Amino acid sequence: MLVTLSLERVAQICHGRLVGADAIISSIETDTRGELTGALFVALSGEHFDGHAFVEQAMVAGAVAVLVERPVNVSTYVLVADTREAYGLLANHIRQQFQGPVVAITGSNGKTSVKDWLAATLAHFVPTLKTQANLNNQIGVPKTLLGLSAQHGAAVIEAGTSFPGEIPKLGRYIQADIVILTNASGSHLAGFGSTRGIAEEKGALISTAKPDATIILNADDPHFSYWVALAGERRVWSFSFVQDSGATLICQDAKFFPNHSDVTLLLNGHSIPLRLQRPGRHQVANAMAVCLAMLAQGYDLAEFLSHLSVPAQVPGRMEMLTTKTGALLVNDCYNASPKSVEAAIDVLALQAGTSWLVLGALGELGEQEAEIHAALGRYAAQQGIQHMLTLGPVAAIAAQAFAQESKAGRAQSCATKAEIITFLADLDQHNAVLVKGSRSAKMEEIVQQLVSQEPI
User: Fold this and answer.
1) Secondary-structure class of domain 5-82 per CATH
2) Which of 9, 89, 265, 293 is the most exposed place for a label (fewest CB within 10 A)?
């Protein structure tokens, strides 16, 4: 932790009350399985857990005190109204002591890829803290911020959302120096009702940023003007594929290949050639966002351009693997939204050989679930995909639409993963397979079976 705190100061920050003797804490923990010596243990509560049940165990393990919502039978505790909110307030206090730039990233698609890509690029210059895995919620963001230390020179924080009002809280904890908002599209429609609702939620990261923050936006997103208005007096930089968009950074030209993309970027009237070692238009957009974030921190383009060409590989995100029988397998199972499925289909269409799209259901689409799955099936057919396999009754809607749209393609809806594996088990090097689906579909189990000898 960046600084030590007294328990009296903890109580002030959290608008709580100290019961017991004052003392100094050197860390803040939420898990009794971790190192608790000198720590404040925060008793978080959720639908399936209650940290208050572990406060005595935490004290025995060496915790100095516990942070709780109700009186407990230990010698020292800080009583607050809401431990989850208090956890965020403590994280924000630590963040305020940090002198380096804090970059916050959100968006319906691309935020994790941009986060890892930017953090990897920054790490060539300064020790960089970044969000690990999917710790991008009301517990994960504070946990990440509390990991700031004197050794860090920058922080890259991902902010996600599953319900209205989450991003405003995360934004207040982060207080970003730089915000990257990649896009707003049809993910989490069940919770937000429309893409406008999603855009408003994501936009809260802008309005909670520091007054002198730089806001990096996708100028091609339909909600661009709305986000610019939210930025107020903050500096706005943007990226675009449209030549006359007036964006800060423009993709002048792009040629897409199976394993890379050759692009020309336009910045301040200068053309910049760049080879990206990942295929797909979406990766070009991600690269432009990373480029602007580096420039916003004062780095010279010549310093980081070579590092920009190699995106960080996120497990389960466009991983190029080989099956046991030699087929190319594109593992994009980390998660799925309508736009990310389209982007993945575009990459599959670039590959040589016979193309196979394996799709699991997309979650949280609400009333538009059937319409969106059908649209994805049609899109795959229009891109020339030759085979489509789907898992379960919802994804079967996509298979039906694919069959109706495609002149030569073949579709099959499957009830089990084992059935899908039967279709793919013997494909050789003349085939390319994309596996995609929401986390809830657990499509990675298909990937594991195809690339290893281990059974599901």
Assistant:
1) alpha beta
2) 9
